[in-house]
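#dry-run=false #mode=assembly
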Amino acid sequence: MAKYKLPVIFIVHIIFLLTIYVLQAMVFTFLPINGIVPLLLPIAVAGIAVFEGSSRGGGYGLIAGILCDLSFNQPLAEMTVFLTLLGITLGALSETIMAKGFPSFFICCLAALVLTAFVQMFSLLFFEEVEMAILLETAFRQTVYSAIFTFPIYFIVRALGRRALT
Amino acid sequence: MRRFLKFKVIGFAIAAVLIAAITIISVNAAGNSGFISSALTALSKPLKSVAASVAKTFESIYGQMYKYDQLVLENDELEKQLADLEEDYREYIEISEENERLRELLNLSKRHEDFQYDTASIIQWDASNWTSTFTISKGSSNSKIAFGDCVITETGALIGYVTDVGTTSSIVVTVLDTTFSAGAIIERNGDTAIAVGDFELMKQDLMKLDYMTETTELLAGDTIVTSGKGGLLPAGLVIGDVVDVHTYNTGIGKYGTIKPAADLENIIYVTVITSFEITE
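#status=ok
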């Protein structure tokens, strides 16, 4: 039974990430608020990392990063590397000092969203010389709009985490 | 018991004979129905009305039951016809729109006989809040699209250019993106400038006309077209109209804000210029 469980858990996680990708890349692009589209994949990676640890956080962070780069029409580098590292880091924190609950999950999601916004605006800030105030405003609105989705995603990643670790 | 029955039977017989006799006599005397007949008719009239009404109700119910099946069949047939007509109408609208697009493209071909085109549809806009790009349905395996090819609408309005070519799809950067820049000419007076994407203006669906000389004359409402210098983009493609002219905070230099001629929010099909003659 155990040998069937691992592929099933993997498939369920992949379906979850693909669903999040479809929502981010194909649904919410038509439902922006004040021109802002929410980011859901970093929240999913943060959730998996918090509830399942660093190795799974990194593995699924890699897959989510590839999907994120595809949704942004950019080469498979920036978000692929970032979300992998994010998954590993948050997973390590969860295994050592953080409790597995909604408060730590929410804080990790906020950190993931803020860091993602910083990564995205890095080139605009240092190479395109865009004003900091405008970038920060966009980053703030993106983070706040995306943070709304931590609540529904929490229940899903918590359930996935419980199934995966039993 | 025998006596009772005998008395009753004889009584009924006598009554019947008497009624019959009176009826015959009254009818024969007046030529009309006698008063007994009339009385009986009057008494029976309401009963007849009730009976007729009940009979009509049952007839109507039966009729409805019988007609219901016919109505259902007729309704199904009409619904099918309606669905066929709606499909024909949708097809008509689609063909009509394509016809309009091809007419516009034909006009463009007459104005620019050196252009070679390929058309594509937009598959997906990017989900980023920091860039303005989209993916089109043509790539290296099904078209002659190459890196740097200009993307326009069928009326010749500039949309952007190709930055990444895949096997079956390509990525296009729009005129609003911060990485976009193109040599531009103010159509009214021929003054040159550079049209660039700006992050702050991108949020308002506008772009910037920058790098103007001190003598450049720019007014709101001026049409900006591509200059063709550098050979990257063909000359004469409409970029947009100037919305406003601003001075930098330093007080030195000015720039204009341009509303792109292409309606980026509602574009579905695009035209990619795969080849053109370079004019300097």
